[in-house]
Amino acid sequence: MAKLQIFFPNGTEATHDLMEEKTSVGRISENQLHIPDDSISSRHAEIVYENANFYVRDLDSTNGTFINGSKTESAVLNHKDEVRFGSVACLFLSEITDSTAANNSSALEQQKPAELSSRPESFVSSSPISRQKNGKDFTPLIVASAALVGLLATGAALYIIFQPPA
Questions:
Q1: Is 19 in contact with 12 (CB distance < 8 Å)?
Q2: Residue 146 burial (CB count, 10 A)
Q3: % of the chain exceeding 90 in pLDDT
Q4: Band of residue 127 on the pLDDT scale cut at 50, 70, 90
Q5: What secondary structure does DSSP assign to 27-51, as a single string?
Q6: What is the average pLDDT across 26-35?
Q7: Please, what's the b/e burial string for 3-24 (b: 16 or more CB within 10 A of its CB; e: otherwise)?
Q8: Has residue 96 got a pLDDT over 80?
Q9: Whole-Å CA distances, 145 to 49, 126, 153, 157, 158
Q10: Do the beta carbons of residue 77 and residue 61 sit within 8 Å?
Q11: Confidence band of 105 (pLDDT split at 50, 70, 90)
Q12: Residue 165 CA to chain centroid, in angstroms?
């Protein structure tokens, strides 16, 4: 039986058994593999079992799906492949039938979960709740300036309209 070992950014781990032909992965609870992390899209990816292989398919997610560090739209999963959905790293584990695969060690095993789940450089938060920014926010100044210009324009238009004929 194949499994996906999940390393959350907060340092916790979970394991999900891949027992269905298609497993949806995403941030919302309707997915078979629910990963509540801001870097995960609502319907991020799916893991499909067909022709005796597991495949991962990205579903046009915001922050991408990566296999062993390379961004992918679709790929075959091999034993001990690192799969990353957004900033959440996972380890794909399956029964080994190839003796060569059994002898290969993965650099992933030597890394700590916190290193695996670091935020990618191209990270874009898809959360509807924005974070407070460091520095100054000029939005109120821009809105007030636009309102002042609009008020002056309205006053000038009214002055011209209601001026007595000469």
A1: no
A2: 10
A3: 56
A4: low
A5: SSTTSSEE---TTS-TT-EEEEEET
A6: 92
A7: ebbbbbbeeeeeebebeeeebb
A8: no
A9: 59, 31, 12, 18, 20
A10: no
A11: very low
A12: 66
The residues that bridge with 89 in the sheet, in sequence order, are: 7, 84
Structure-block tokens of residue 108: 């992933």
Give residue 149's pLDDT band: very low, low, confident or very high (50, 70, 90).
very high
Q: Which residues contact 49 (CB under 8 A, 6 or more apart)?
A: 2, 18, 20, 21, 22, 55
Q: For 44-63, how does the pLDDT look when each residue is reduced to its tens digit (9 = 90+)?
A: 999 999 988 999 999 999 99
* Amino acid in the structure at residue 152: L
Name the residue among 70, 82, 85, 75 with its Cα closest to residue 35.
85
CB 57 within 8 A of CB 22: no
| Residue 47 identity (one-letter amino acid) | I
Which residues, other chains included, contact 77 with Cβ-Cβ below 8 Å and sequence gap of 6+? 2, 47, 53, 54, 55, 56, 67, 83, 92, 94
b/e code 76-113 from CB counts within 10 Å (16+ = b): ebbbbbbbbbbbbbbbbbbeeeeeeeeeeeeebeeeeb
pLDDT of 157 above 80: yes
Higher pLDDT, 143 or 1: 143
Residue 152 tokens read as 């002056």
